[in-house]
Amino acid sequence: MGYSTPQRQSLPVVNEHAAPMQSSDLPTDVVYAGREVCGELPMAEAREILVTNGIGGYASMTLANSLSRSYHGLLIAALRPPLDRTLLLSKLSESVCYLDKHYHLSTDRRKKHALKKQSTSTRTSRQQNKEREKETNGLARAETGSERPDFAPPIWRNDGISTALSKLHEDEVVTPAGFELLESFRLEGTVPVFSYSIADAVLEKRMWMKHGQNTVYVTYYLRRATQAIELRMKALVNHRNHHDRTSCVRPPFNYSANVGRNGSTVSVLFTTREHHETTLSMMISRGRADLTNEWVRGFVLAEERMRGLPHVDDNLHAATFVVELPPGGVVTFVATAESNASQISLDGEAELAMQHAYERSLLQKFEDARHRAFQRRMEFEDRHSCSESSPYSDSSRSAPVKRRRKRRSVEPNIKQLVLAADQFIISRGGGRSVVAGFHWFTDWARDTMISLPGLTIVTGRYDVARSILQTFSKYVSLGMLPNRFPDDGSAPTEEDYDNADGTLWYFEAIRAYYMATGDLELLVELYPILQNIIHHHCKGTRFGIKQDSDGLLRAGCPGLALTWMDAKTNIVYTQRDGKPVELAALWYNALNCMAFFAAELEKEDECDLFTGMADVNEQSFQEKFWNEEKDYCYDVIEGGSSQTERDSSLRPNQLIAASLNWSPLTEEQRFLVLEACSSHLLTSHAIRTLSPDDPRYQGVYLGDIFARDNAYHQGIGWAWLLGPFVLAHLRVFGNRELAREFVLPILRSHLNEAGVGQVSEIFDGDPPHRARGCIAQAWSVAELLRAWMATEMDDFFEDE
């Protein structure tokens, strides 16, 4: 298909009526960035997108369409779901010819020396490619002038007012600089929409992944133009673990590429050094594909450099896809690692409609869950109003008020968070699990159990919650859940069980699920497993985890970090061996959960047994953990070799004790804990892990892995802790409107920062509290949703 120039029209053609690529009933205005963000390179690169496929695969890049992490790419496939996450398609580097001018839409940071080598080698490789194409299957086009050569993009020079912000390292350049054409960015649900302004034309680009497949869709919609454009997409491919880097000097794979018979499909067969084969299939709904076979060197991964890690990557330019797109036209590009590539639909509009329908179904489940949660709460409070083992026996619920049933509407930010929650839910071995965070975490037991109530119960996905609880029950060993699963897909080893609290969060997750569903069948199924867990904790299990004679739980093993404050390289950075405060509280809560479960199953003797054990624990907690001098809890007691040692560090772990359904703290103690944490640990987006008054405090998360791990739990703020804070605040003051105020700042501002539409893992303890770590963290999203739901209960209805 040659490029032709239609007769110029007097005004741009706008396809307003069909609007084929929009969905008006999904949140579309929560995440938005205009020129003030998109046109500034540092701001555009500081914001990243994430789309996922529900089996561990994902796509991610910056708003500038640049690669700043080893984890950025258009298709990172989970080749053995949810593991073996492999970068296959790094990016599409797009350019447009319109009104006889050439525009580049992509943005790259490149090493200067690599760019010089590239320009020299390109001339040679292009001639070689032309000769090679003439010899293959008769698919090469004769040199008739129908091919338009690639036009080298100019080197970006920032002479504007933001030079100081956009300062580049001396050894790098930005070319091309497509962010300068990016008029706006928004999310339609979770689908990113890039809107490029090209003279008087507007080109919209969308991308999403097919749920349950290692398949990514990209559509281009020429919303406005006076004539057709020629769109060229350079497909840069790779084959490496998403943690690694590739060097074209010694690439980790061999490859062969072929164009299909229709001329619009390219297959790249990768063969690794271990002789594993993967086929990447790329296709386009209209147009042609030209093989290229050229290495593009020296991509600068700026975020990896900032983390003190190798930061240069090379990618293979395998092919260029070329299409003529008329005004109002849509073209679909698909890349897949699935074996049935020939059967994958190229109807981008239909596939996008399916994606929108899926997300609408998630929002409907959430709306149904809101109503069900209110009804279930009332039912259980009526049944257990006088019971000591009631999960609401210590509730702050105010007196019921009769209201007409008119449900309050949910603000769009919460709907966006509900959709964000879905991105962490994955399939594992026929069941379900939760990715702890993107980009580098897999599924961890602790993170999964803390996240389960917010990700699945608040959102009404009870079947997913049930599956997760059953999936993890299969891995209980010596009364413990594994901390993580091996990346190679093998069964967990002894070392993989190195956590003391994940198993205890399992009890709370089951309680939350049962409260929402009344699923007695699952409770019957899991109850013996829970009994086994209690038994092993009482007699002692791995890593020194054992109930002591005082009824409190002890844990500790040299060289290991067994609580959630688990940063460790060759040393443990936050030593908490002994009896950590949240471990004692979680054990107390687990015993009360067992008493409640036994009562539900009409096992009165066992109910009495667990209640008695909990009473002993509570008495010891009161005697040993309260710091009378400082009016808050010791963080750890009886650590090290001393049975009298007490750590008086002001940390947020006591908030967990204050917020759990069954708390070993008195009402006055909860107030004092909240007062101390509010005064020293609370920030607008997170809770600090250590008081700034502590000489060990570190308020900024930067540097190499040793510097970052040393700061990880020594003052850095964690968003997930806002959940326990809000729940504790609610229990102390009973003011839901006031408690909700503490989650509004992060809901209303942060969704447009870092991982857009998502919630980051951590934040600097020091102002301005910049987002750090994972751009999307499961328990951050989950705990915000759980906190929001807890503050909504009394305001569920409004008067008509």
Automatic annotation (TrEMBL):
InterPro entries: 6-hairpin_glycosidase_sf, 6hp_glycosidase-like_sf, AGL/Gdb1, GDE_C, Glycogen_debranch_N. Pfam families: GDE_C, GDE_N. Residues 387-399 have a biased composition (Low complexity). It comes from the Eukaryota. Residues 109-153, 385-408 are annotated as: Disordered. Residues 420-786 form the Glycogen debranching enzyme C-terminal domain. Residues 117-127 have a biased composition (Polar residues). One of its GO terms (biological process) is glycogen catabolic process. PANTHER family: GLYCOGEN DEBRANCHING ENZYME. This is Glycogen debranching enzyme. The lineage of its organism: Eukaryota, Rhodophyta, Florideophyceae, Rhodymeniophycidae, Gracilariales.
